[in-house]
Fold this sequence. Notes:
Number of domains: 1
Distance between the termini: 32 Å
Number of strands: 7
CATH topology: Nuclear Transport Factor 2, Chain: A
CATH class: Alpha Beta
Shape: globular
Strand content: 35-45%
Structural class: alpha+beta
Amino acid sequence: MQRIAAVGLVLVVLLTACGSKKPSAQSQAVQKNAEHYEIDQIERTWHRASSRQDVDLMMTLWAPDATLSVGTDTYSGKARIRAFFTHKAGPFKPAHHWISETPAYKIRITANGDKGTLYFECHYADLRTSKIVSTVAADQNVQRIGGKWLITSSVATPVTLTK
């Protein structure tokens, strides 16, 4: 999939460089799809990190001065966000053996230049019981920094699953 995104970006550059001052609708659509794919990698990496209890991987998603709000608590900067995941976040507790996923229809992405938004829900299932043990929504602002999309702010709130 990353190869598809890279090909899409190359196509955008080539189409833009062909002398047209205004990008065509097709090249704009390719650019938008490439940006959405890149932003969606945050959600995918988030779930891989939380399912593996890999705090180092989780921290690759955050901008240096990012904020994370969970309930009434706000953590500012990567060191404090790391401490939250290391010591407080349910999926990262050593006694928990949870796997994390998001139904595709619960992902929303926007992009406008180098800034965007990402919303997804985390459904955590206990591997031993196969039961959902936690559901959390992550509503995030993201930004392309140094060529990579990173979370600049995130608000986590519990959500209730409905039938």
